[in-house]
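Q: I have 358 residues here and want to know how they pack in 3D. Can you give me a structure?
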Amino acid sequence: MAEGMPQEEIKRLCDVHVQVFKASLDKQARPELQAGHPVHTFLAENRALEVEAETVRRLLEALEAGALAPEQAAVIAASVERLASIERHYLRKENQLFPALEKRGIVGPPQVMWAIHDEVRALLKEVRAALRERDGVRLAQKGPALCQTVVDMIYKEDNILYPMSLSILEEPDWVAIAEGERELGYALIAPPAPFRPAPAAPLAAPAAANPLLAGMLPLDTGLLSLEQVNLMLRSLPVDLSFVDENDEVRYYSEGPERIFPRSPGVIGRKVQNCHPPKSVATVNRILQAFRSGEESVAEFWITLGGRFLHIRYFALRDPKGRYRGCLEVSQDLTPLRALEGERRLLSWDEASEKERQA
């Protein structure tokens, strides 16, 4: 890939590559892993997914050509849906394992594997459609291809991806991967025990000494600079205003298409003083319900100047449940409400095609 070979070409030759090295891959020693280690979990899922893929394959072999009877379709569909839980397996690879490898410079294999994940997803969509329509001919074409692609990917994971990952990633990487897994879920297995590695030796230098962390804000799910946070907030297609626990305005976003006017003079002002007198009672009712914990969301929608506006208020609470303020989110939904049909191409490409046809 570094020399310019397209990803699709590498994907096409992937199975050839595996066959060339299969004899040596099969001789690899299997690591002993603690329950809860992400690779231990991936491997356990693979064993269950192999069984389900084989079940689907056997059900398809028993079919005769032509339309499916409703009871046949129901039995196969149930097994296919169990196999479809592979989506959670793939999501954990894509969102937890692949980012860790990319940080170590391993970019090509994740990209190629992700392309095969999408191939499995496309085949699942085809198989589900064939089952809904009870189309035995299409099912006989797409079903075996789905099972074989799943099984082939399992072999590549077991014998290439996981051994490579274990040789490259270190214990802190695996801890971080394990911490994010439960949110994404598991495929055909119960949630594993928490991963509890041996206590690590103290670091030679504190984290603050790391130049990569200098000037960065350690957020719950990443590190961002103040500049990056400001750019993100300014670019959101919504207006944001934040009022702290003392009912004082602390922030508003300054986007290119602000809905309601704001100026720096509101910063530090009591939010009640930012509304007309007739609205203050409603403002106080919302804040009191948020502060007491009785409510967490309030929303309104209005038509103003020909625009359909959606306005929501969210109570913000810290991990201990203490009220820390209110976030107002306003959005002009007029363009979204007008959408119809589908757009599957970039609008830039559509414009170029229209110009070419003209």
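Q: Anything worth noting?
A: Strands lie at 216-219, 222-225, 239-244, 249-252, 297-304, 307-317, 323-332. Residues 7-184 form a domain with the Four Helix Bundle (Hemerythrin (Met), subunit A) fold (CATH 1.20.120.520).
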